[in-house]
Design a protein that fits this description.
The protein is an alpha/beta fold. It is built from 10 helices and 10 strands. A hairpin with a 2-residue loop joins β1 (11-20) and β2. α4 crosses α5 (127-144) and α6 packs parallel to α7. The longest helix has 19 residues, at 102-120.
C-alpha cells in the first residue's frame, strides 16, 4: 500500500481548461493517470473527450491549467517534442502519409528520432545502419499484425482496418510509454472494428499504458482498468468498469448508458 501511495502519476492534469472562442470545452479537469493503467473515456458527443486527449500531448494548447508527463510540466517544457516521442497517438482517420510506402510510414519518425538522439549524444552510428535497424523493426511489427506482405504497398491500396493497425504499429515503433487512442474505430466499417480492437487488447494485456476515447462499450467493459465519464467538459464519474456499468451514480451517466447499452 505504501508503494501505491508514493507512486507518481505518469500523466497529471491540474485545473485543465480549454475554450474555443466563447465556448468552454474543458472545465477545470484535474486527473491522474498511472503507468500500466488502461483508461477508457466515454461520454456523449461534444462532451470534450477528444479535446482532453489532445491536450495531454499538447496537440491542443490548454487555455488554462497544467499538464505533467513523467513529473515535468509540458505546458512549460522547452523540449516538448522529446516528451511527445514517448506518447504514441492514434487518430480516427489514420493519418498515414499517402505518398509513402507502409514501411516508410512506420520508420520515418523513428529514424529521425534516432538520428537526432545520436547527434545529441555525439554517437557516430551510420545513417544506413539506423535505417536498416528500423526497417528490421518495422518488418517485425508488420509480421506481428500479419501485414508483412504490405510493406511496400501504399496506403490507398489498404482497407481501413489495415490502415489503422499500421497506424498503431507506427506509434509502437517509437517505443512509447503511453498510447493515446482517439476514437480509433469510429471511421471503420463494422467488420473491420474487431481486428483493431483485438490488437489494442493485445497491447493492453502486455501492460501498455493506454488512454482510449471510444464508443465501444464492450471494449471499455472488458479491457479497461478504469473508466472516465465526461459530460459538458467535466469528468463527472470515474471508476472501475464494474462501478461505471453496473452501479453508476451520476444521473447523466445513467442516461448515457441507457442509450448506448
Amino acid at each position: 500500500m505504501c508503494d501505491a501511495i508514493k507512486k507518481e502519476p505518469l500523466i497529471k492534469t491540474v485545473d485543465l481548461c480549454k475554450s474555443f472562442g466563447d465556448t468552454l470545452v474543458l472545465d477545470h479537469i484535474s486527473e491522474n493517470i498511472y503507468e500500466g493503467e488502461k483508461v477508457v473515456i466515454i461520454g456523449p458527443s461534444g462532451s470534450g473527450k477528444s479535446t482532453f486527449l489532445r491536450c495531454l500531448n499538447l496537440l491542443e494548447t490548454p487555455t488554462e491549467g497544467s499538464v505533467f508527463f513523467e513529473g515535468e510540466e509540458l505546458t512549460r517544457s522547452s523540449d516538448l517534442n522529446e516528451h511527445r516521442k514517448k506518447m504514441g497517438m492514434v487518430f480516427q482517420h489514420f493519418n498515414l502519409f499517402p505518398h509513402l510506402t507502409v514501411r516508410k510510414n512506420i520508420t520515418l519518425a523513428a529514424v529521425d528520432a534516432r538520428l537526432h538522439a545520436n547527434r545529441k549524444q555525439k554517437l557516430k552510428i551510420p545513417k544506413k545502419q539506423v535505417i536498416a535497424e528500423e526497417n528490421e523493426k518495422a518488418m517485425a511489427l508488420l509480421k506481428r499484425i500479419g501485414l508483412e506482405s504490405k510493406a511496400d504497398a501504399y496506403p490507398a491500396t489498404l482497407s481501413g482496418g489495415q490502415k489503422q493497425r499500421i497506424a498503431i504499429v507506427r506509434s509502437l515503433a517509437m517505443d512509447p510509454k503511453v498510447m493515446l487512442f482517439d476514437e480509433p474505430t469510429s471511421a471503420l466499417d463494422p467488420e473491420m472494428v474487431g481486428e483493431v480492437l483485438a490488437l489494442m487488447k493485445e497491447l493492453a494485456d502486455e501492460g501498455m499504458t493506454m488512454i482510449v476515447v471510444t464508443h465501444e462499450m464492450r471494449f471499455a467493459k472488458n479491457v479497461s482498468t478504469r473508466v472516465l465519464f465526461m459530460n459538458e467538459g467535466k469528468i463527472t464519474e470515474s471508476g472501475t468498469p464494474q462501478e461505471i456499468f453496473e452501479a453508476p451514480k451520476d444521473e447523466s451517466l445513467k442516461t448515457f448508458l441507457s442509450k448506448v447499452l
